[in-house]
Amino acid sequence: MAAMRATLLFLLALWPSLLLALPTELPAPGGVAILGLGQADERPQATFNDEQVAVLPGENGWKALVGLPLSLEPGDHRIEVAWADGRRSWHRFTVQDREYGESRITIAEERLVSPGPEDMKRIEAERARIREALRTWTNAAPDFNFVLPTEGRFTTGFGLRRYINDQPRNPHNGLDIAAPTGTPIHAPSPGRVILTGDFFFAGKSVFLDHGHGVISFYAHMNDIHVQDGQSVERGEQIGEIGATGRVTGPHLHWTIYLNRTAVDPTLFFER
Ligand SMILES: [Zn+2]
């Protein structure tokens, strides 16, 4: 253990920037809370609402990175931490209110707005596969030196309340980047492909696991350039911009999940 700690301290001294690269903290619905947990030789396990959250080494001990759902009530919340020596501790944090705007889009194809029973069967099966993919947990430390996955214009932002043909829908859980069909989409950070498919709403899509419950999702692709199980480097092409699934034009819909919670992707890169 002492040797491991010495190695860790050595690495901390060598690459402080690597270890300091964290998402921007935003303790609000759709944001990320970063909580100092304290020192220990072994990495503790932390949970928020029974979901395991990322715990990473920081300058002054372990840090928990908690993805906060858009539906979370502002006010006091806490995570539970289980330490290797059997201790448990609770760490409180305060969630502030955050106002998101609204987005209204019109989809001409009625089937994509109010799917029939056959389509609903397909949609339910796809949701189950996606839920399963989001359950992925690997112990590799995520590399938060994210780059943008594509070049384009930011259109619909994260968190907007959505109306499709004037019907209320779930809030927009990603960031839309519009670019011409065929524009390359790159992995923003090293990861592994955990799910690819052609989904009813999302069209041709890729899910990447970056470790510790950090999972990114790319939708509406024209073409997918990777296969399930494949490892990808930062900047490696995973597909190209398209207009598959429920869209009004070619764009990338990009979601980042922490502890199975979609959070604002703009917290992951310099603006
Ligand atoms: Zn979108």
Describe the structure.
- The protein is mainly beta and 271 residues long.
- The protein has two domains: 2-95, Sandwich (Immunoglobulin-like), CATH 2.60.40.1590; 102-268, Glucose Permease (Domain IIA) (Distorted Sandwich).
- 13% of the residues lie in helices and 40% in strands.
- The chain has three helices and 19 strands.
- The strands form three sheets. Strands 8, 11, 12, 13, 14, 15, 16, 17, 18 and 19 form a ten-stranded antiparallel sheet that branches. Strands 1-4-3-2-5-6 form a six-stranded antiparallel sheet, with no helix packed on it. Strands 7-9-10 form a three-stranded mixed sheet, with no helix packed on it.
- β5 and β6 (88-95) form a beta hairpin.
- The protein is globular.
- The termini are far apart.
- The structure holds zinc ion.
